[in-house]
Specification:
Two copies of one chain form a homodimer. By secondary structure, chain A is α/β, with parallel strands linked by helices. The first copy, chain A, is built from 13 helices and 13 strands. In chain A, helix 3 packs across helix 11. The longest helix of chain A is centred in the middle third of the chain and has 16 residues, at 167-182.
């Protein structure tokens, strides 16, 4: 597929994953050694055993940065995604879904060996999601998969912290960041998960201080980054590091702080019933980045983030079911 | 898996299908020659082309009678399902989902050739579903797949009208009906779809008159069966043929008529927002059959049907997301 690299606002780099979502109670999480609200990596054998133990599920394309790309496109923004799927049915599903949303996804190779990654998402009665990821070929993402021309032409490259767990994928992210910076573009990054931050704190701090312009983090993640329990302290410190930090706080809404001294509080959008928080942070980032690259102010961009998050938590699954561009019209 | 055939209330026989659900507008249906609210069969090539044209989708196990079996199990009833999947990923998904709901599903063979069936479901803004089914190996269901012992031991065998389109599968249904009748058990049948009724009106009339004890039909289906536009006339005629007929009428609720002279009107359960009507009829049948086989009266059984239908239309997909046994506790 020939693509018009001029036309892309945001390039998202992350794991290419299909989610397998099921309801479970807290006892199930405990029995299987999961920590609620977090993500862990599992191997093929554990994936098989967990699936056998899980309740009935639905399959929905996921992957954190991929969800963000889908959200940007759903708003009408121009997004591209870089990630790796295999030449199998789930790879076909992932590719269909992200392209059908309007995201440019044009993988440079499609491995015949290995399987497309999947994430077993357990949703507890409190609507919290707990994730068990079998990465499959997603972990094979490498620098040669990163299209320099595409990244350099975009306004923002958005990178998923989860990829830091894989050495080669980490190099792919670093390449994306370097290409964007050399082209004078913005680097956005999500901390992804508090355990992920714990595993890579020093490097993530270095990224925040020297490489990342726009950081996304929820409360446990930003507190993990600065090894503090005081969210206010973490918020102050990140504002000294990043040009912009979008700090999400679940039902308390979000706060956008900036190196320029902004401290903007944005309330959460009201939702009739929170069904499943999977993708809430990803869609917040989508709304913000759509607004930001469209030239809206920080507050307007944050409100679009809150709107997108509210849509995705009102149903099972991490991709919007309704066209976000239409929802945005209603509130603007 | 060894199974306790003594323990089954209802054996459901139908297509084994994974649904691929997506939102679409009326123009998309028209452009692709679909008739809103109905089901059509498509071949592999058409399935490929339609998928490429469709928006982002979610995958959720489906199949009309399979949804009913899952609903019965979700209420806490003992259900078995007979249908055919292939030895592929969608077959694995279908098998996982129905077993994880608590349904006995123990296929006698698992073809390596051919693919598990899938149904491309387009949900329009009015929440109506329009279905395009690629049957795959589901159409290979044959009499030897019907476990006589299992059927004879159940209280009810529930058969899906859609299977009538496949000559060999039709023989499987006829075998199931014969075994149940010979064992002194009840035969339940759903007319499935108005076009399906049109294709097989004479045989379906013969079934209603001589073989079916409990018939399920919505308005277009029962009117198609008696070739009338007057629902009241169709309702009167079916009450002369079947011991019980459950006639669903969407938001107008349902009416249960019986050969014994019952005429019971059951209101629809209120729903905050109807998202997707896929599975509404299947889940109504689940609630009714669960109540019926548990010895409830017709009205109580019908109310459980309305309850189950209300759950499934409040989200995307044709299987319950919440445990119906818990919802039933609230209303009882």
């Amino acid at each position: 597929m020939a693509h018009d690299t001029q036309a892309v606002d945001v390039v998202c780099i992350g794991n290419a994953i299909v989610d397998v979502l099921s309801h479970a109670d807290d006892a199930f999480l405990e029995e299987h050694g999961m920590v609620k609200g977090t993500m862990r990596l599992i191997d093929a054998e554990s994936a098989h055993a967990l699936y056998a133990a899980m309740g009935p599920a639905v399959e929905s394309s996921g992957g954190s940065a991929a969800n963000t790309a889908a959200g940007i496109a759903s708003f009408g923004g121009r997004a591209a995604f870089i990630g790796k799927v295999a030449n199998d049915l789930l790879g076909e599903v992932f590719t269909h879904d992200i392209r059908a949303t309007g995201v440019l996804f044009d993988p440079r190779e499609l491995p015949d060996d290995g399987a497309t990654g999947r994430c077993f998402v357990l949703v507890t009665p409190d609507a919290q999601r707990t994730m068990n990821t079998f990465l499959g070929v997603s972990s094979y993402l490498s620098p040669r998969d990163v299209d320099e021309e595409l990244v350099a032409a975009a306004q923002v490259v958005y990178c998923e912290g989860y990829l830091w767990d894989e050495p080669v994928a980490k190099q792919a992210l670093r390449k994306g960041m370097d290409v964007a910076r050399d082209a004078g573009k913005k680097v956005a990054f999500t901390l992804s998960d508090p355990f992920c931050v714990d595993r890579h704190r020093d490097e993530f701090l270095e990224l925040a201080e020297h490489r990342v312009d726009i950081l996304f983090a929820n409360e446990p993640e930003i507190c993990a980054l600065y090894a503090t329990e005081a969210w206010e302290e973490a918020a102050r410190r990140v504002s000294e590091h990043c040009e912009i930090a979008c700090l999400t706080r679940s039902e308390k809404g979000s706060v956008i702080v900036s190196a320029a001294g902004d401290h903007i509080e944005i309330p959460a959008f009201p939702v009739d019933e929170v069904i499943d928080t999977t993708g809430a942070g990803d869609l917040y980032a989508a709304g913000f980045l759509y607004g930001y690259t469209a030239g809206r102010g920080l507050e307007a961009a944050g409100r679009l983030g809150a709107l997108a998050a509210s849509e995705v938590i009102s149903h099972l699954g991490a991709r919007p079911e309704r066209r976000l561009a239409e929802l945005a019209e209603v509130i603007e």
